[in-house]
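Researcher: Structure prediction, please.
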Amino acid sequence: MNLEEAKRFAEDWVAAWNRHDIPSVLKHYSDDFEMTTPMIQRVLGIESGTLKGKDTVGNYWRAALTKVPDLSFSIIEVTCGVRSVSIYYNAVMGKKAIETFLFNEKGEIYRALATYN
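Model: Predicted structure follows.
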């Protein structure tokens, strides 16, 4: 993936989140993808901070949107690597986040890691 493709992905991903359109967010992910974030630790109390599966993570995100109905992200920077993209963005609760996405050979995200300041 080149930087232009990474930026297009990031813009589409953020726009879907800002519309609170979970099906459009989920279209980027494989059915068995894995998400790790401190927010899962905080909200669900899962020590690993990890959820597996598109349905499981989608349900978590839908529940999160009910708790943060004014959720809105804005991109600060986008970087790319070998089948990977990282988005540095303004996130929730006044925090900044870096989310790194790893893509499989089909161009679907199979793993995502989020960090916050």
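Model: The two ends are 27 Å apart (CA to CA).
Researcher: Thanks, that helps.
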